[in-house]
Amino acid sequence: MKKFKTLEEAQIELIELLEQEGEFRGTLNELADRLNVKPENIRPLLQLLKSSGDVLYEESEEGLIVRPAMMVPVVPPTLTPEQEQEVQQKLKEGYKVIACSTMGGVQSRELRSALGKRVIVYFRNGSKVEAKLKGFDRFCLKLRNYMGNMLAYKHAISTIVYKP
């Protein structure tokens, strides 16, 4: 009996496939075989990745075209000198950069790996928040700390770091 991958494993594998090959062209069944998932799980997988801003896809009579979504930062990253120094110090201490405004489509994979962990979010206005990452979507992060739940919009964030 064939063992199928979980939806989360398939998401990561599809993103890696697109990073290597640039795009996928073929049928739903070919993509299902390539990712080792059930064919009926391909559409929900693509819709999930589209809603998170990772991929764009077109489905026609000829087949399926899946491409990585190009995320071009509108505003350049702006860390204050103090924040830049603090981020560099955190990196030396073993922290990992999850996202910054120059990382593009890699964000979702890194954010998934940090779900449930404590993160430090540096905002463009110079402030920062230390909290646990509870969830995210294409536009915002859900954070929780001693003050309660918070919603932080990604366009206001400069950099996010966490300790793996």
From TrEMBL:
Domain called Sm: residue spans: 106-164
One record GO biological process: regulation of DNA-templated transcription
Domain of life according to the entry: Bacteria
Record-linked Pfam families: Hfq (PF17209)
InterPro entries attached to this UniProt entry: Hfq, LSM_dom_sf, Sm, WH_DNA-bd_sf
Keywords: Ribonucleoprotein
Annotated GO CC locations: ribonucleoprotein complex
Matching SUPFAM superfamilies: Sm-like ribonucleoproteins, Winged helix' DNA-binding domain
GO MF annotations, alphabetized: RNA binding
Name of the protein in question: Like-Sm ribonucleoprotein core
Organism name: Thermovibrio ammonificans (strain DSM 15698 / JCM 12110 / HB-1)
